[in-house]
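Most newcomers find our protein records easier to grasp once they have seen one. A learned vocabulary of local backbone shapes supplies the integers on the structure line. An example says more than a description, so a record of this kind follows:
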Amino acid sequence: MRQNLNISAFDEAAVRALAEFIEKERVNASPADRAAVINALGCFLGECIVRSFGGQWNRDTAGVVGVQLGAGTFINPFWYVERQWLYKLSDVITGLYASIPLRVAGGEEPRRRRTWIPVPLPPQRIVAT
């Protein structure tokens, strides 16, 4: 993948080039090839994360493959590539990459404060016919 993108390293510039590649190539890829393309691009993004932040490839408790950064941060690069690919959100993977130092330092990105009070739903009634 790195050779296809003409990139010499697995760093922030590589992640930006990957994001640009996704934006350009999304329209050219056939739906039949989408899973393979997302897999290849997710592997590349994951390797950029591993080499830049010292993580390692691992499986979480559900068997999902991703990058483990420290004890508390697990990132599924395939999910992020798929979100950018499918929903045309051009800053998904660059935003992820930029957020990693904060995630590693604090365990996660700060969560947005809820502006509403969650209320439990009443039990569902089954109506006999």
Observations:
- The chain has a mean pLDDT of 83.
- The longest strand covers residues 65-69.
- The chain has one domain: 2-106.
